[in-house]
């Protein structure tokens, strides 16, 4: 049963929301807890969704977005928090899944008072939910939230944080790509392979650096001319094409979507010439229902590395803050994405299913196996 708690208007410490201890994991069962956070003084309107604490504290970022309605915000929080359960489980973290959304325009409405009020609501959950950056929130915002709660990661380095998570996100994509190469071509080396990167923002830019260092040929595209110009100044040897359509039709070995979600729709999959898809973008599959894009990729012989595994380097990086951030330890954990990717691709091949389905199955198995042996205690990692 989903627990709904609607705290009253402004108080110094937000009311403590009710919760239930999780039982055996059932992906169809629903969320453990949903909390509505309202603070009249600061204008805060937020929703925190805790999907599962079977593996540990529910970790997931806070999205600040001008939703058209509260129902839209709730739907996003529920969807994203469930995704974090699977991401954290498949990444091998002892963390559950949660997500929060703040309703509003972050460019106009964000304030210290609002962020601190939000931090008090996070604190009221006693550690069941740990927040981090997401769309519309940044490292500096996490530092402000940290003034009210310790249950926040993605802080700046002066505040004991990991800093920009793009560093290990890009490294994780590169690591997973090497595992895909081993699966498809029998070698982890990407030397001489042609990789198309769609989106060269922070993560895409860093990924290109890893690929060039590994001896790959790189072709890129981005809707931002400024992003392409920055990349060309650092790496003048990359080739640039005009638009994603041109990129997916190019002679690629690997296609790396690193921009917006929905990158793999029916038309793109039919046009794609690459043997591997491995990129950092979230929610790449435009249709992930049975018989949808995952199965069409499988039919076409294209190896798809599930996005929520491939891009989990960032959450691994910030989660390390819970132990006192050490970059080398976090990087070592991200290196394990190689074995995790191998396991997904092997399971998919053995069962004749898409890697997307195999990834879900492996995540659910870990949650069920490990989660059922845990004694639930509030705030326990």
Automatic annotation (TrEMBL):
Q: Where is this region: Disordered?
A: 1-21
Q: Which positions carry the signal peptide feature in this UniProt record?
A: none
Residues passing through the membrane, by range: none
Recorded hits in SMART domains, A to Z, give: ELFV_dehydrog
The Glutamate/phenylalanine/leucine/valine/L-tryptophan dehydrogenase C-terminal domain is annotated at 163-375
InterPro entries hit by this protein: Aminoacid_DH-like_N_sf (IPR046346), Glu/Leu/Phe/Val/Trp_DH (IPR006095), Glu/Leu/Phe/Val/Trp_DH_C (IPR006096), Glu/Leu/Phe/Val/Trp_DH_dimer (IPR006097), Glu/Leu/Phe/Val_DH_AS (IPR033524), Glu/Phe/Leu/Val/Trp_DH_bac/arc (IPR016211), NAD(P)-bd_dom_sf (IPR036291)
- UniProt keyword annotations, A-Z: NAD, Oxidoreductase
Is Oxidoreductase included in the keywords of this UniProt record? yes
Task: Tell me the domain of life.
Answer: Bacteria
Q: Which family does it belong to?
A: Belongs to the Glu/Leu/Phe/Val dehydrogenases family.
Q: Quote the protein name from its UniProt record.
A: Glu/Leu/Phe/Val dehydrogenase dimerization domain-containing protein
């Amino acid at each position: 049963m989903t627990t709904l708690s609607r705290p009253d208007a402004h108080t110094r410490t937000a009311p403590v929301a009710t919760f239930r201890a999780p039982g055996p994991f059932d992906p169809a069962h629903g969320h453990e807890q949903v909390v509505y956070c309202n603070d009249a003084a600061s204008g805060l309107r937020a929703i925190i969704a805790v999907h599962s604490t079977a593996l540990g504290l529910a970790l997931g970022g806070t999205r600040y977005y001008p939703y058209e309605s509260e129902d839209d915000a709730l739907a996003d929080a529920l969807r994203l928090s469930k995704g974090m359960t699977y991401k954290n489980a498949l990444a091998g973290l002892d963390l559950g899944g949660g997500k929060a959304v703040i309703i509003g325009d972050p460019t106009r409405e964000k304030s210290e008072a609002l962020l601190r009020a939000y931090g008090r609501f996070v604190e009221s959950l006693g550690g069941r939910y740990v927040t981090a950056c997401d769309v519309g929130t940044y490292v500096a915002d996490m530092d402000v939230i940290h003034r009210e709660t310790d249950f926040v990661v993605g802080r700046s380095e002066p505040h004991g944080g990991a800093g920009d998570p793009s560093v290990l996100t890009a490294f994780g994509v590169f690591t997973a790509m090497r595992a895909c190469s081993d699966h498809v071509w029998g070698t982890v080396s990407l030397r001489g392979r042609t990789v198309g990167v769609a989106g060269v923002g922070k993560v895409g830019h860093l990924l290109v650096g890893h690929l060039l260092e590994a001896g790959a040929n790189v072709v890129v595209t981005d809707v931002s001319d400024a992003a392409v110009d920055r990349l060309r100044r650092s790496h003048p040897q990359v080739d640039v094409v005009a638009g994603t359509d041109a990129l997916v039709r190019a002679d690629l070995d690997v296609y790396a979507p690193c921009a917006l979600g929905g990158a793999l729709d029916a038309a793109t999959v039919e046009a794609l010439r690459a043997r591997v898809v491995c990129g950092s973008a979230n929610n790449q599959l435009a249709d992930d229902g049975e018989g949808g894009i995952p199965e069409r990729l499988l039919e076409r012989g294209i190896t798809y590395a599930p996005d929520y595994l491939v891009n989990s380097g960032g959450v691994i990086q910030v989660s390390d803050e819970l132990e006192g951030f050490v970059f080398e330890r976090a990087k070592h954990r991200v290196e394990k994405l190689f074995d995790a990717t191998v396991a997904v691709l092997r399971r998919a091949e053995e069962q004749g299913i898409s890697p997307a389905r195999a990834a879900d199955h492996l995540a659910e198995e870990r949650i069920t196996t490990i989660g059922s042996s845990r004694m639930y205690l509030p705030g326990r990692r």
